[in-house]
Amino acid sequence: IRIINFRRSYYEEWMWDRDVDKLPLTHDLPAIILVLDEGKMATGISANPKLTRAIIDISDRGRGMGVRLIMSGLRGTAEVIPSELMAGIGARIGMKVAGKAESNYLFGWDMRPNPRDTPYPGCGLWRPTLAAGVPIPFRSHDLGSPKLISGLAQECLRWRPGLDGPSLNEGLPGDLRERYASRWERAAGALGERSAG
Asked: What is the reported pTM?
């Protein structure tokens, strides 16, 4: 939230000069992507309301400043993704669900997604944007193996850019700057030695 607020003021004139309303993201001015895996713990009915409010705030205000949210959940219901958060979600992917109501909630009641389009494990529907129309059926590969996931993460490591200097050095106070800079070390420690390698 601090970085969103900082970028909005710091890059205002730069965006005005280029006549754009969203930061043009590059390797030097990267997006910040928050990943909520099984996001129900952060946004569901039993979640901390202050955390849920912050996530909705980030979703509402962050896109133009290159702060994005990716969330997964086991169900396509309001108990997992609050309707206030759902309103700001553009790209949507839904795997095989329990019934029509979940698909309708996820993709929109007027889209009439059809659960029959997802007959097998690995089948799903996706909409790249809110304006994209009817969800498109697809079948995915199984990427659930821990060793495969670890290997993919290692291969993609070199693509991960550092935060732009102004956002890091001026947008965050010293204690938060250090917490941001050490986030991967903390994550590796929490996940155990296997991930740290």
From this structure: 0.77
